[in-house]
Here is the input.
Amino acid sequence: MNRILGFSILGFILLVAFYSNANYFVFAHTFSGDESASFLTTAEMMKIESQLAQKDLASNTTTAKEHAQHTTELIKANDTKEIDERNPRLATELNTTLSDFVKTFDSGKPSESTVKDKAGNLDDVMAEVVSARIDKQQLDNVTVKSLVVNNLVGETLEHYNSSLGMSEASHDKNNTSSSNSNETKILDQADYESAQGTVTRAIDLYNEIKPSGNANSTELVNALNSLKEKIDSKSPFDQADKIVDDKITPMLNDMFKLKMAVEEDHGGEGQHASSGNDTHK
Here is the structure.
């Protein structure tokens, strides 16, 4: 009887363990290369915006606050849900830390040390979230990183577009009119700085992964730098857009086999081109 009872208890324990693991696999979504790149882009943008908030604090509290507000627009409801499925503690901690960072700017001018500390806390939590949400194989994958470069280029155009006071629907009309002048008027300084910071990060990330021995490798560096120069010099939007369409996207496609299709408009959550990739080994 004792032996039968022992086997029964052991069987019950194994059964509970099996269903616990089964539930884990049901809820622990395995992300494709595109999904991983999308979330990594979000993490990059949060870091860029928090750094810009710190940078602007001394000279323009209003712009610094706008950058802080941008961080709250990056994490979507579905992101929070997926983080919670992986690690409920991190989901709660991210929400609290993000809210704490933004609220720092609500009352007057916060101290630089306070903002630096809270931005550092946000960076630390996001680093944990990225590790929990994305498999290391995806984190180290060159194709995933090249998709992040593409996404950052798209974010650059989106913020530059917004800084000029242009809507997505009015691209063609405004591009035609702005082409007649050598410089455009910046209407939103925070978006302009976001465009500058994002294209700089895109260049740095590409330099980390650029292939050696590829004829287009250096040419793509030059194209990315040209995009930065157009933004720094406040050139018409269509000039920056043309560099992306004619050079950056085709060369990224060629070098990393991304299978991206260039879209006629340049919106879509910061992505200038859509990709047909599912996963990248």
About this structure: Residues 33-137 form a domain with the Four Helix Bundle (Hemerythrin (Met), subunit A) fold (CATH 1.20.120). Confidence is low (pLDDT under 50) at residues 3-31, 169-180, 265-271, 276-281. The CA atoms of residues 76 and 139 lie 21 Å apart.
